[in-house]
Amino acid sequence: MSISLxxxxxxxxxxxxxxxxxxxxxxxxxxxxxxxxxxxxxxGDGKAHLVQFTxxxxxxxxxxxxxxxxxxxxxxHFARFDIAVIKKFLGVETTPIYCTKIASKxxxxxxxxxxxxxxxxxxxxxxxxxxxxxxxxxxxxxxxEQLSYAANDVLYLHKLKERLDVMLERENRxxxxxxxxxxxxxxxxxxxxxxxDQDIFEH
Length: 203
Fold this sequence. Notes:
Layout: E1 2-7, E2 19-26, E3 36-42, E4 47-52, H1 61-68, E5 73-76, H2 79-90, E6 97-99, H3 100-107, H4 116-124, H5 144-155, H6 157-170, H7 174-192
Parallel strand pairs: 1-4, 2-5, 5-6
Antiparallel strand pairs: 2-3, 3-4
Helix pairs in contact: 2-7, 3-6, 4-6
C-alpha cells in the first residue's frame, strides 16, 4: 500500500486514468450538517491519494475537474452519501458513477450484509479494519491509523467492481444497475433538499 496525503487539492499533472475509486471522510453522516474533511482516491494500482481539506473555501480545481470529468468513471461504495457531500462542499456534479453497494444489493440477494468489509471478505478475501470509522476526521493532523483506514476504503473498489460486474451480467441485472447509478445524482439532491428520510415513491 502506498499513501500520498495532499492539502486541499490534488497536485498538478496527476494521471488518474479512466476510472478512480472515491470515498469521503466527514465529521458525521448528515451531509447538510457535517463538513467534508478528507476525500480519497485510487486508480486501483495499490496507491491511495488523500486530499485533506483545511481551506474552508474548498477551492480544489484539480480535484473538482477530475470528479466532473465525464471520461473518468468514479467508483464508490454507498455513492449516495459521497456524491451528496461532494455536491454540497465542492459544488460539482460527480459523473459517471458506479456504486458497489447498489451492485451488491442487486446480486447478493442471499444476504443483508452489504457493507464494504462484508463484500471485501466474501468476494476478494480481504479483511478490512473499520476501527477508525468514528474517529475525528477534522483533526489538523491525521494519525497513521486514520490514513490507513481511509486508503483501504478505496484500494479494493476496482477489484470489487470486477467481481460484481460478473454477477450482474450473470443475473441479467447490468442495465438495472446502470439505471440505479444514473438516478444517484437526483437521490443525492433529494437528500440535500430535505427528503433524506422519506420515500417519495411510496403510496
